[in-house]
Amino acid sequence: QEKKIFMVQGPYPIIRHLLRARGWVERKLPSMGRQLEQHHPLHYTWPPAEEEEEKEEEQCDEDPSGIHDLMSYLVRDRLPNFIWTNFLEATDHELLQQDHVVNHYARVDAFTTKEGLCLSLQNLPWIEQADPNTFFPRCYRLGTIDEQEAFIEDFRLTAARSLLKLALEEAGDRPVRTKQVQNSAKRAGWHRSHVSHPKHSTAPEGSPLYPELVEEALEVCKQHLGVLRHQDIDRGTPSPCRTCINWDRFLQEYYRVAHEGAGLVLTRQQRKQCQSLLRHLAEQLPQLGMEGKLNVWILKPGAESQGRGIICTTRLEEVLQLARGFTAPSVRVGRWVVQKYVEQLLTIFGTKFDIRQWFVVTDWKPLTVWFYRDCYLRFCSWPFSLCHLERARHLCNVSVQKWYKTSPDQDPRVPPDKIWSNKQFQEYLAQLGQADAWHKVLVPGMKAAILNALRSAQDQVGFRKGSFELYGADFLVGEDCQPWLLEINSCPTMRPSSAVTRRLCANVQRDTLRLVLDRKNNPTCSIGAFELIYKE
């Protein structure tokens, strides 16, 4: 009569314990919660989006008197009033009664898959006065011909800009000369930051770079700058990538400079031109700083999670080979996305990390978003290096890193369980002299990115009153402490992998129930670390 019957599917012992403590009765699922009775109108899917296919954890509270089992038996034929599950298919929402509370919305793949988020954010400028390039590394769906062509053009333009950066870096403060010369891989600085890919090189070892290389890069960048400055005036301007240069030859020579140690010597005039062009391009391209100079891109299956199938590469031909379905047969052709890798990122003790940030949507009409003030950092197992593109160095997912032993080269100050709380991160920033970066740069940047992502997909989500959803957004941090949104996860894992996540995952589940249940009857009740950041 009080409508306090709940159902839990998946490894959520905390939720079960907290609901029982509130006087709720569980309608149990048969077969350890993997399937419902045939007559039940709700149908569930297993495995969930971000949970692994493991047996459900033992529930954290015991039932020595058997009272919970007895009550569950008595409500076995009753529909639950509250459902917390891994994943609820969109068709199920049509069968729910109006007063049912469910922890999912339908059609959220518009922003919780890599492919969906990529497409939604492309449409953001038409919906909001916001530029996704300021918070989301540029991204392309390779299964779409137009986007594949746009990626090829982006890769080429990035190579041209990167060549100018490399030329300036190599020149440094040394006297300039009037011609380009071949340089060995051991010349000052190159062996520290570049990796050889001899199998890709088409030029004989020791052969000189062709003399027009820098001039071609300068010309391409000049034309691109002109397009950027006049893109709203003259949309008929031809693409700078359609200039009369041999792009295959240009890229092979760029690979030699970026990855095989070939050197460049600039004339005095070229140095000034490079500096001026890059300065003006930085005014037009928000990602010029973070994109680095090695042209690293990251390929991701468009609808996978837990780091499955993700590959880092520096070669255009490798990306296109994947897009055409010649490799990775487990991924359907056309479902790949390719995204610019954040090369200029903040590391901690020489190790890459990312941030898992929770938030809850309690309504889509009007859009109502709650941000969780606590979050955690996930570290890689091996030191960061752009010379080597192994997953252990570049993918921070716990589900990826658990398969790797900590490298002997890893700084011993990196936590053994590869997890930090945001409080520990704030202490670290303070040691760097960046004490205000968390509250003045990172948190506002994460909030803005989340809201822009939600607004870009708002019209596509299957809305219903009574539902809510807890999400986990993943961010990288640039050298300037700017957060870069990577993806948003439905069903963020609640399996603790460390003492930090054991505490924080329990807290966010507790506070979510306060937010969506307790607050209905008591609007002034505590909602823990949640704060309302947006309500239309």
Automatic annotation (TrEMBL):
It is found in: Cytoplasm, Cytoskeleton, Flagellum axoneme. One of its GO terms (molecular function) is ATP binding. SUPFAM superfamilies: Glutathione synthetase ATP-binding domain-like (SSF56059). InterPro entries: TTL/TTLL_fam, TTLL_monoglycylase. Residues 188-200 have a biased composition (Basic residues). One of its GO terms (biological process) is cilium assembly. This is TTLL3 monoglycylase. PROSITE patterns: TTL (PS51221). Residues 175-207 are annotated as: Disordered. Pfam families: TTL (PF03133). It comes from Rhipidura dahli. It catalyses: L-glutamyl-[protein] + glycine + ATP = glycyl-L-glutamyl-[protein] + ADP + phosphate + H(+). One of its GO terms (cellular component) is axoneme. Keywords: ATP-binding, Cell projection, Cilium, Cytoplasm, Cytoskeleton, Flagellum, Ligase, Nucleotide-binding. The keyword Secreted does not apply. The keyword Oxidoreductase does not apply.
